[in-house]
Structures are given as C-alpha cells and as structure tokens.
Amino acid sequence: MDQIDLFGNVTVKALKMRWSFSRLGTFAACPRLGYYHYFGGSKRKAASEPQKERIQFLKQLSAGHLVAGEIVHKAIRAYLMNAKDGQNWKLSQVISFANMLLDNAIQHSADITAGVTREYDHRAPAIIQELFYGTVTAVILKDTLREKMRLSLTQFYNLPDFQGFRNGALHENSLIERKISLDYEGILVEGAIDLIYPSADNWVIVDWKTGENDSEESSLQLLTYALWAHEELGVPLESISLFKAFLTEGIAEPLLFSAQELRRAKARILQDIELLTEMEGFGDAANREAFSACSQPKVCAQCAFQEICSKN
Question: What letters, b where the CB count within 10 A reaches 16 and e where it falls short, cover 229-266?
Fold first, then answer.
C-alpha cells in the first residue's frame, strides 16, 4: 500500500515478507496448515480469527519424529560446541543428553495432557502430538524414538564420512547453527546453517539430515546457504562446498552447483515470495477457506491442528 510523506510525495511501503525453507515446506505440504502456523496462530495477523487462542496452543504440538530430529540437532550442536571448547564428550554422553531431552518432552506432553502446569527456566519442551492425541503410548514412542536417535548419533560420532565435519567444527572460525538472513529489497530470506567452516581454500557448509532424501527441496535449502556465504561473507562460488549429511544412512552427499543454479534458486525464492504475498490479504482477513486443506491421510495424521481442521 502506498504512503504519503510530509511533502505530499507518494512513497512505496517496504514489503515485510519473510521466506524460509520451513515456511515453504509448510505451505507445500498443506496450505491450510500454513494458515494455522503463520496467520491463525500469529499474534500480529488474522486478528478476527475466532479460534486464535486454541490455534496458538496447538502450534506447540510437534510429531514425534520431528521432535527426535530436533533433539539430534541439539545433541550434535552440544557435542561440537563442547569439542570446540576442548571438552570431548564420549558417545555415551551425547546419547544420554539426547535421551534426557526426549524424556523431558515426553514428561511435558504428559503434564499438558493431564492439565498440569509446570514452570521452566527456559523454553518449555515440545508437546508430542501423538501423546496429546493418544495415538500411541509413551512407552512405545520412547523406545522407537530413542532407537532412531541412537542410530543417528552413533553414525555421526563413528563414521569416517563425518570425521572431516567433526574436525572442521573445531576451527576457530567455524559457525555452528548460525542463523542467517538475506535482504532482497525488504524481503527477508531466513534460515539456519547447521555447520560452516573454512577448509584449505574453500568453505564447507553441512546440513544434518535425520529424514529421507528429499533431494529437490533440501538442495534449495543448501543453495540458499551458498547464496548467503557468497553475498554476505564474500566467498567466491568456486570456493563453497555443500554437503547433505544423512545421519540414519551414514552418507555425506556433496551437492555440486553452478552460478546458473544459484540464480535459479534465487529466482525460485522470489517466485515463492510472490505467491506468499498473494496469500497475505486472505490470511490477514482470517479467511482460512482460501487456504485449501490437502486432505491427504498421511499428512492429516501428522497434523497438529487435526482437532480443529474441518478439511473442507
């Protein structure tokens, strides 16, 4: 919307739009899910949403495998940060740390389901939606997720394919879980790099993966990180090495790219932003019907908002 300055001149209001890989993935999986996350559950948008308070609560729910994946990332971060400070954790310590975080999430989920309020020094653990909705028992879920985390962390700790990454994280200029942003004329492109470090004549960027290989979308995520390294750090394109580290498979897969592919990635981001911009008006007006529900059983079964989604 245009604005008028003090001298009567028309000025163009800067667009405050954010793009991130997670936002893109949410809308791609289900537009209605995107509405709940970024409009219905927002404090600043969709003010007329009648179920806002409930949506904001349900935003705290997360599927068990996502909780486990986030915990694996936290455990790896803790290991690398301690190693950089000269404290070398044993594998048993890394797994124990991860199990503790999972136990906390399971206990918090049980408390919330039972209506128990508990104070936390920092951010409360995630609420595991399978436990909230009662689709699985805590015992079964704990055993399943603990085994998945154990496998991922053991692969990270022991496999030669990941040794170079562990060593690279020790470099004084390495960045571990660095939040990044690019500003394209008022449009913020955001993300978080799991690991970046200098090596010989290049910079290595690593993205830890605990799920399956979704090559196209995860490639876009890594290319976004390359854009940031090139545009913000001034690293030449030929000096950037990208890797997807698939922890459960024990594979470090390089992503080869060219300047043309980076231009395509940037164009894709700007195209996505145009689509998200078109949704802003409907979202701000709390018009959830404008965001179609995917109605895919597998997606719906893992949706935190299944309690309120009519799927119409």
Answer: bbeeeebeeeebbbbbbbbbebbbeebebeeebbeebb
Domain ranges of the chain: 51-158, 165-272
Instruction: Please give the Cα distance from 308 to 303 (Å, whole number).
Output: 10
Residue 83 has pLDDT above 50, yes or no: yes
Segment among 84-88, 176-180, 307-311 with least mean pLDDT: 307-311
pLDDT at 6 over 50: no
Q: How confident is the model at residue 276 (pLDDT cuts 50, 70, 90)?
A: confident
Interhelix angle for 21-29 vs 259-284, to 10°? 60
Quickly name the fold that domain 165-272 has.
Lambda Exonuclease; Chain A (3.90.320)
Residue 36: which pLDDT band, with cuts at 50, 70 and 90? very high
CB distance 209 to 243 below 8 Å: no
Mean pLDDT over each residue of the chain, to the nearest integer: 87
Closest CA to 238 of 209, 203, 272: 203
**Rg of the chain over all Cα atoms, to the nearest angstrom:** 21
Alpha-carbon dihedral sign for residues 90, 92, 97, 101: positive
Query: Read out DSSP for 18-67?
Result: EEEHHHHHHHHH-HHHHHIIIIIT-SSS-TT-TTHHHHHHHTTEE-HHHH
**Of the candidates 16, 68, 20, 13, which has an alpha carbon nearest to the alpha carbon of residue 190?**
20
The tokens describing 145, both together, are: 């997720």
